[in-house]
Amino acid sequence: KNQVEQSPQSLIILEGKNCTLQCNYTVSPFSNLRWYKQDTGRGPVSLTIMTFSENTKSNGRYTATLDADTKQSSLHITASQLSDSASYICVVSARRGSTLGRLYFGRGTQLTVWP
Amino acid sequence: EAGVTQSPTHLIKTRGQQATLRCSPISGHTSVYWYQQALGLGLQFLLWYDEGEERNRGNFPPRFSGRQFPNYSSELNVNALELEDSALYLCASSSGLADTGELFFGEGSRLTVL
Q: Taking CB atoms and an 8 Å cutoff, what residues of chain A touch B98?
Protein backbone atom coordinates (compact mmCIF):
# COMPACT_ATOMS: atom_id res chain seq x y z
CA LYS A 1 0.00 0.00 0.00
CA ASN A 2 1.36 3.40 -1.00
CA GLN A 3 1.71 5.62 2.05
CA VAL A 4 3.50 8.70 3.30
CA GLU A 5 4.11 9.08 7.02
CA GLN A 6 5.40 12.27 8.62
CA SER A 7 6.82 12.87 12.05
CA PRO A 8 6.50 14.52 14.40
CA GLN A 9 2.84 15.48 14.09
CA SER A 10 3.58 18.81 15.75
CA LEU A 11 6.67 20.64 16.94
CA ILE A 12 7.31 23.77 18.97
CA ILE A 13 10.71 25.46 18.85
CA LEU A 14 12.15 28.79 19.88
CA GLU A 15 13.04 31.43 17.34
CA GLY A 16 16.58 31.00 16.05
CA LYS A 17 16.74 27.27 16.73
CA ASN A 18 17.09 24.54 14.11
CA CYS A 19 14.71 21.65 13.57
CA THR A 20 14.33 18.55 11.40
CA LEU A 21 11.10 17.09 10.06
CA GLN A 22 10.85 13.49 8.85
CA CYS A 23 9.02 11.80 6.00
CA ASN A 24 8.91 8.05 5.35
CA TYR A 25 7.21 6.66 2.28
CA THR A 26 6.33 3.37 0.62
CA VAL A 27 5.23 4.77 -2.75
CA SER A 28 6.27 2.72 -5.75
CA PRO A 29 7.28 3.22 -8.48
CA PHE A 30 8.83 6.40 -7.12
CA SER A 31 9.01 9.54 -9.22
CA ASN A 32 9.83 12.46 -6.94
CA LEU A 33 9.35 13.88 -3.47
CA ARG A 34 8.27 17.40 -2.66
CA TRP A 35 8.14 19.42 0.52
CA TYR A 36 5.47 22.08 0.82
CA LYS A 37 4.83 24.81 3.35
CA GLN A 38 1.21 25.62 4.07
CA ASP A 39 0.21 28.65 6.09
CA THR A 40 -3.16 28.39 7.80
CA GLY A 41 -6.01 28.81 5.33
CA ARG A 42 -3.69 29.21 2.34
CA GLY A 43 -2.61 26.94 -0.48
CA PRO A 44 0.63 24.95 -0.07
CA VAL A 45 3.77 26.51 -1.49
CA SER A 46 6.58 24.37 -2.87
CA LEU A 47 9.90 24.37 -0.99
CA THR A 48 11.86 21.64 -2.77
CA ILE A 49 11.42 18.84 -5.28
CA MET A 50 13.79 15.88 -5.35
CA THR A 51 14.11 13.06 -7.85
CA PHE A 52 15.54 9.59 -7.30
CA SER A 53 19.13 10.62 -8.01
CA GLU A 54 19.21 13.65 -5.72
CA ASN A 55 20.39 13.37 -2.12
CA THR A 56 20.25 16.97 -0.95
CA LYS A 57 18.59 20.15 -2.10
CA SER A 58 18.54 23.53 -0.43
CA ASN A 59 16.24 26.50 -0.65
CA GLY A 60 17.51 29.27 1.59
CA ARG A 61 17.23 28.11 5.18
CA TYR A 62 15.46 24.92 4.10
CA THR A 63 17.49 21.82 3.27
CA ALA A 64 15.85 18.59 2.16
CA THR A 65 17.55 15.22 2.04
CA LEU A 66 16.43 12.03 0.33
CA ASP A 67 17.55 8.45 0.90
CA ALA A 68 15.86 6.47 -1.85
CA ASP A 69 17.19 3.19 -0.47
CA THR A 70 15.53 3.56 2.92
CA LYS A 71 12.68 5.63 1.46
CA GLN A 72 13.21 8.45 3.91
CA SER A 73 13.38 12.20 3.54
CA SER A 74 14.02 15.00 5.98
CA LEU A 75 13.51 18.74 5.91
CA HIS A 76 15.96 20.73 8.00
CA ILE A 77 15.13 24.31 8.91
CA THR A 78 18.02 26.48 10.03
CA ALA A 79 17.80 29.55 12.27
CA SER A 80 14.03 29.40 12.52
CA GLN A 81 11.92 32.54 12.20
CA LEU A 82 8.42 33.32 13.43
CA SER A 83 7.24 33.19 9.81
CA ASP A 84 8.29 29.53 9.63
CA SER A 85 5.23 28.67 11.73
CA ALA A 86 3.16 26.57 9.33
CA SER A 87 2.29 23.03 8.32
CA TYR A 88 5.01 21.26 6.34
CA ILE A 89 3.72 18.62 3.98
CA CYS A 90 5.64 15.81 2.30
CA VAL A 91 4.25 14.75 -1.10
CA VAL A 92 5.50 11.70 -2.97
CA SER A 93 4.67 11.16 -6.63
CA ALA A 94 4.33 7.78 -8.25
CA ARG A 95 5.57 7.29 -11.77
CA ARG A 96 3.41 6.25 -14.68
CA GLY A 97 5.92 5.71 -17.44
CA SER A 98 7.37 9.10 -18.25
CA THR A 99 4.42 10.96 -16.83
CA LEU A 100 3.34 11.87 -13.36
CA GLY A 101 1.24 9.32 -11.58
CA ARG A 102 -0.77 9.51 -8.42
CA LEU A 103 0.33 11.89 -5.67
CA TYR A 104 0.50 10.77 -2.06
CA PHE A 105 0.35 13.32 0.75
CA GLY A 106 1.58 13.07 4.28
CA ARG A 107 -0.60 14.53 7.03
CA GLY A 108 1.95 17.26 7.64
CA THR A 109 4.00 18.46 10.60
CA GLN A 110 2.61 21.53 12.34
CA LEU A 111 5.57 23.73 13.29
CA THR A 112 5.18 26.56 15.76
CA VAL A 113 8.03 28.97 16.32
CA TRP A 114 7.91 30.95 19.57
CA PRO A 115 9.71 34.23 20.14
CA GLU B 1 2.77 34.51 -15.31
CA ALA B 2 -0.48 33.90 -13.46
CA GLY B 3 -0.55 31.09 -10.94
CA VAL B 4 -3.34 28.62 -10.30
CA THR B 5 -6.52 30.58 -9.76
CA GLN B 6 -9.59 29.32 -7.95
CA SER B 7 -13.06 30.77 -7.62
CA PRO B 8 -14.97 31.60 -5.62
CA THR B 9 -12.71 32.37 -2.66
CA HIS B 10 -15.55 31.75 -0.24
CA LEU B 11 -18.89 30.04 -0.70
CA ILE B 12 -21.72 29.57 1.77
CA LYS B 13 -24.43 27.01 1.07
CA THR B 14 -27.10 25.17 2.99
CA ARG B 15 -27.56 21.43 3.35
CA GLY B 16 -28.91 19.76 0.23
CA GLN B 17 -27.75 22.48 -2.14
CA GLN B 18 -25.12 22.12 -4.85
CA ALA B 19 -21.75 23.84 -4.99
CA THR B 20 -19.57 24.46 -8.03
CA LEU B 21 -15.92 25.36 -7.65
CA ARG B 22 -13.64 26.40 -10.48
CA CYS B 23 -9.93 26.15 -11.15
CA SER B 24 -7.73 27.63 -13.84
CA PRO B 25 -4.34 25.93 -14.10
CA ILE B 26 -1.05 27.55 -14.96
CA SER B 27 -0.71 28.10 -18.69
CA GLY B 28 0.70 24.97 -20.32
CA HIS B 29 -0.29 22.65 -17.50
CA THR B 30 -2.56 19.80 -18.52
CA SER B 31 -3.07 18.06 -15.19
CA VAL B 32 -5.43 19.32 -12.50
CA TYR B 33 -5.83 17.84 -9.05
CA TRP B 34 -8.55 18.54 -6.50
CA TYR B 35 -8.13 18.12 -2.75
CA GLN B 36 -10.34 18.58 0.28
CA GLN B 37 -8.86 19.89 3.49
CA ALA B 38 -11.18 19.89 6.46
CA LEU B 39 -10.23 22.14 9.37
CA GLY B 40 -7.13 20.84 11.12
CA LEU B 41 -6.77 17.84 8.83
CA GLY B 42 -4.46 16.89 5.98
CA LEU B 43 -5.22 17.08 2.28
CA GLN B 44 -7.56 14.38 1.04
CA PHE B 45 -7.33 13.49 -2.64
CA LEU B 46 -10.56 14.02 -4.56
CA LEU B 47 -9.98 13.93 -8.31
CA TRP B 48 -7.24 14.03 -10.90
CA TYR B 49 -7.79 15.20 -14.47
CA ASP B 50 -5.28 15.05 -17.27
CA GLU B 51 -5.79 15.98 -20.90
CA GLY B 52 -9.52 16.25 -20.34
CA GLU B 53 -9.96 12.82 -18.80
CA GLU B 54 -10.50 11.69 -15.23
CA ARG B 55 -7.40 9.67 -14.30
CA ASN B 56 -8.19 8.82 -10.71
CA ARG B 57 -10.55 9.64 -7.88
CA GLY B 58 -10.25 9.38 -4.15
CA ASN B 59 -12.55 7.70 -1.64
CA PHE B 60 -15.39 10.17 -1.90
CA PRO B 61 -19.05 9.51 -2.72
CA PRO B 62 -20.34 10.00 -6.28
CA ARG B 63 -21.94 13.32 -5.35
CA PHE B 64 -18.41 14.71 -5.69
CA SER B 65 -17.80 15.03 -9.41
CA GLY B 66 -16.00 17.23 -11.83
CA ARG B 67 -14.72 17.76 -15.31
CA GLN B 68 -11.88 19.28 -17.23
CA PHE B 69 -12.50 21.54 -20.17
CA PRO B 70 -10.57 21.72 -23.48
CA ASN B 71 -8.62 24.71 -22.13
CA TYR B 72 -7.61 22.49 -19.15
CA SER B 73 -9.56 24.50 -16.62
CA SER B 74 -11.59 22.37 -14.26
CA GLU B 75 -14.78 22.37 -12.27
CA LEU B 76 -15.62 20.52 -9.07
CA ASN B 77 -19.27 19.90 -8.30
CA VAL B 78 -20.59 18.79 -4.95
CA ASN B 79 -24.24 17.76 -4.92
CA ALA B 80 -26.58 17.27 -1.99
CA LEU B 81 -24.27 19.17 0.36
CA GLU B 82 -23.77 17.87 3.87
CA LEU B 83 -22.41 19.71 6.89
CA GLU B 84 -19.18 17.70 6.80
CA ASP B 85 -18.45 18.99 3.30
CA SER B 86 -17.39 22.26 4.90
CA ALA B 87 -13.69 22.51 4.06
CA LEU B 88 -11.01 24.27 2.07
CA TYR B 89 -10.97 22.87 -1.47
CA LEU B 90 -7.59 23.14 -3.11
CA CYS B 91 -6.76 22.81 -6.77
CA ALA B 92 -3.28 22.09 -8.08
CA SER B 93 -1.90 21.95 -11.59
CA SER B 94 1.10 20.22 -13.12
CA SER B 95 2.73 19.82 -16.50
CA GLY B 96 2.40 16.08 -15.98
CA LEU B 97 6.06 15.26 -16.51
CA ALA B 98 7.29 12.69 -14.02
CA ASP B 99 10.67 14.06 -13.04
CA THR B 100 10.33 17.76 -13.64
CA GLY B 101 6.62 18.23 -13.23
CA GLU B 102 6.26 20.95 -10.67
CA LEU B 103 2.99 21.05 -8.78
CA PHE B 104 1.46 24.42 -8.00
CA PHE B 105 -1.51 25.01 -5.73
CA GLY B 106 -4.15 27.67 -5.80
CA GLU B 107 -5.23 29.54 -2.69
CA GLY B 108 -8.33 27.42 -2.35
CA SER B 109 -12.08 27.86 -2.11
CA ARG B 110 -13.54 27.88 1.39
CA LEU B 111 -16.90 26.10 1.36
CA THR B 112 -19.15 26.48 4.37
CA VAL B 113 -22.29 24.37 4.60
CA LEU B 114 -24.91 25.57 7.08
A: 31-32, 93, 95-101
